[in-house]
Write the structure tokens for this entry.
Amino acid sequence: MQLDWTVIETAGGSGVIDIFINFPVVDVNRNVCWRNPKNVSEYNLNRMNRFWGDESWKNVAYHEEQTLFGPETVKGENYDIAEGFRTRLKEVAQF
């Protein structure tokens, strides 16, 4: 998650650059997308926000499920997170 979203967005907006990004699934899982998102460090949240461009990744990475004890925040699948980033590349960065 070292790449800054502004670089991606600028490249996409230019209309003349192709991009190949190896989505950092391991880094995202190890440092950001935990079962309990409240325990993630501020440093890693900022890294993810910078990579994604904003905090909308949280809506992709987590969802609410009703349990016997009430609603519970559940981590989504890796595929869903990577697909959300791909969609963002197309719709926001204009790739």
Summary: The first strand starts at residue 62 and ends at 67.
